[in-house]
Amino acid sequence: MERFEGKVVLITGAGSGLGRAVALQVAKEGAKLSLVDLNEKGLEETKSEIQKVVLNAEMLLVKANVANEDDVKNYVDKTVETFGTIDGFFNNAGIEGKQNETEDYGSDEFRKVLDINLNGVFYGMKHVLKVMKEKGSGHIVNTASVGGIRGVGNQSGYAASKHGVVGLTRNSAIEYGQFGITINAIAPGAIMTPMVEGSLKQIGGEDGWEEVGKAFVEPNPMKRFGKPEEIGYLTAFLLSDQAGFINAAVVPIDGGQSYKY
């Protein structure tokens, strides 16, 4: 199945985790890729992983800080200069931030998390939408979180930013559906990525984080962490023309935990 044959897919946060998983999936299905991350080493590792399974994959690597609008405009411009257009955009780059109760949550940390997770998503949409509107089609998937549809203790910045992503997704989807553009969000739960591993280490340290992880997934109806490739399958579908009438959706992918009281 080559749903992305001849299509250009732009992915932020492509140097690891969910971004890498989605890049691998759409590359297998024929996409030309523009891969964006602040971590150049991570981008090269993603490129190598893709080349193992798609020998002739066309890829552009761009180093960018998504919290800087000039960097965002640059990665959009470079993608268009290289490939001519943008058909799909996985607006994914983000951080969790430090964990603390709200009264002790650092104001600088709060601003940092919102700058990357919310402002970065806004800047990406702002500049990609101009390209998609001109061509009259496109699919955008923003990375929200179950923390964007319910509370997450000790993560004020993260929860606030991801709730903002949900609102921005729905608002923009209403505006741009008339131009043949769909805008949706995924809301992952506990997916075993480097970011989640780092979060567990904040709590349990280098020696105890795996035990913390076991306790963390115990309330989940499926009793396990999700896999990055499971995010890849869903996101690839939402970025494809097969999902052409799905718009303004926020899709949990968390094993059912967000629905369990």
Description:
The chain has 261 residues and is of the alpha/beta class. The protein has one domain: NAD(P)-binding Rossmann-like Domain (Rossmann fold, 3-Layer(aba) Sandwich). The protein is 49% helix and 15% strand. It has seven helices and seven strands; from the N terminus they run βαβαβαβαβαβααβ. A seven-stranded parallel beta sheet has the order 3-2-1-4-5-6-7, with helices on both faces. α4 links the parallel β4 and β5. α1 packs across α7, α3 packs parallel to α4 and α4 packs parallel to α5. The longest helix is centred in the middle third of the chain and has 29 residues. The relative contact order is 0.14.
CATH architecture: 3-Layer(aba) Sandwich
CATH superfamily: NAD(P)-binding Rossmann-like Domain
Overall average pLDDT: 93
| Helix-and-strand structural type | alpha/beta
SSE arrangement, N to C: EHEHEHEHEHEHHE
How many beta-strand runs?
7
Q: Please state how the strands of the largest beta sheet are arranged side by side.
A: 3-2-1-4-5-6-7
List the domain count as a whole number: 1
Rg over CA atoms? 18 Å
Number of helices: 7
The helical percent reads: 40-55%
Shape: globular
What separation lies between the terminal Cα atoms? 39 Å
Query: In terms of per-residue confidence, which ranges show pLDDT below 50 for 5 or more consecutive residues?
Result: none
CATH topology name, in short, is Rossmann fold
CATH class term: Alpha Beta
Described by strand count, sense and barrel closure, the largest sheet is:
7 strands, parallel
Approximately how much beta-strand content do the residues carry?
Answer: 5-15%
